Each structure stands twice: as structure tokens, then as C-alpha cells.
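Async update (no meeting this week)

Hi team, since we skipped the sync, here's where things stand on the single-chain job. The sequence we agreed to prioritize is pasted below, unchanged from the tracker. I ran it this morning and attached the output directly underneath so nobody has to dig for it. Comments welcome in thread, and please keep replies under the output.
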Amino acid sequence: MKVLEERRGLSVALLQVLERLPVLSCYAKTHGWNYVVSWLHRLTGIGLVVYLGIHLYTLSSLSTPSVYDAKMRIMYLPIVVFLAWASSLMVAFHALNGGRLILYESFGNRNDETMIRWTFGLTVSYALLLGILMLMNNQNVSAVFFWLLTFFAGLATAYAVASRIWNTKHSAWWKLQRISGAFLVIAIPAHLVFSHLNPGMAQEAQAVIARMQNLFIRFVDLVLAAAALYHTGYGLYSIATDYVSAGAVRTALAVLIAVVVAVFGFLALKLTLFI
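Output:
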């Protein structure tokens, strides 16, 4: 009973903080928190597409290690480190809210108010954890061990979702979006944590290349890239179809999205197989 009261107290405290945020609170009062969270999910999704492009662009320099090392020196300037930390809020929120949507759609969890509070609360907790790791900047963990645990945790999550939705009447494309999302809920936040657990493995070109040449890591990278690119393409197209009714414009946007995903896919494949 005491634990439940403490949790309820934390939820109320978090809600009070959210209600003081100038822009979010204004829209929440006029449209409700579901509206705000829906828009934040779309905006953070678009932000993650930009983040993915920057990430692939940075890694593309691995073919010339000196260029990559020079870029990474820029990446570790204080202002850039702060922006990288701030982006963790975007990553965590999109992942956790995606998990909330999956729980809502496929597992019957309809307590939206509580789930939304948990989404915001865990987002802040994740960002704080990552901030601590970034400040410590001295941790070390086996890449194979870390990704072995992460990969199978992601697969287990994806399988749990697949087993719930595969026999439903939704299209295969929709199902793959949810399944890939379930895998990414685990894999993407873990990817950020790993990069700051092992600073040297992200800062130095030779260390990154050595890690990526491990066969298991290469396989994980391919699965992660495939899931991320499919989820990206379907998510962008879903946003386009939600807000664009003209057939010609929809077609043009679909072609543009396909081109972006194809370019990202080419870069990811090149990095994974030929580094």
C-alpha cells in the first residue's frame, strides 16, 4: 500500500512538472496529453531520421581513418557533447512512447494517463543515466557480450509482439512496423549507452573498424540497420498519408522517402560489409 502511494505521489509530481512547461502545457490544456504525445512522437521520429543521417555520414569517414578521427574531435567539443546528450531525450521518448503504443494496441494496456507519465519519467531517467556515463567517460564492457545480451533481448521483445499481432487482420507492412519497433525499443537506446560505456570504441577509427569487423557484431549491425531503415521508411510514409490527401503529392513523397531510405541503406550496407 505504501509503495502504491509513493508511486502515485511520483506520478502527480511529474505531472505537475509537465504542466509547467510553457508550450506543452498550453497544448495539453486545449487538446489533452494524448494529442501532445502523438505530435511529439512524430516530431521525434523525424528528428531521429536526421540523427540517423548524421550518424551514417560520420561513420562513412571510416574508410579514411584520419578524417574520421578529425570529425570525432569535433564531436567531443563541449557544446556538441551537450547536443548529443539532449538528443538522448528524443531517442528515449520515441522508443518508450513506441513501446507504450505497442502495449496499448497489442497487449490491452489502456491506462493512458499512467503510461504517459511513465513514458516521460523513464525518458528523463534514461537521459540522466546517459549523462552520468558521459561525465564518467571511463567505463568499459565487452562489445560482443553487450550486444549478445541486447540482441537477444530485442529479439525476445520483437517475438512477443509478433506472437500477439501476426494473426490479426492488419497488413504485413503494419505488422513489420510494430515488430521492428519492438526490436528497436531495446536496440537503439542500448546503442547510445554502449557508445558512452566504451568511449574509445567510438572515438578512434581503428577501434571502431576492429569492432565492426567482428562477424557477430557485423550481423547485429545488419539486423539493426534493416530494422531501423524499414521503421524509418514506414514511419515517414505514415506521417505523409496522415496529413496529405492529394494522390500526386503522396506519390511524390513516397518516392522521396524511398530514395532517402535507399541512400541510407546503401551507406549502411557499405559500412557493414566493406569496412
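Quick observations from my side:
Residues 78-106 form the longest helix (29 residues).
Residues 1-10 have pLDDT under 50 and may be disordered.
Reply here if anything looks off.
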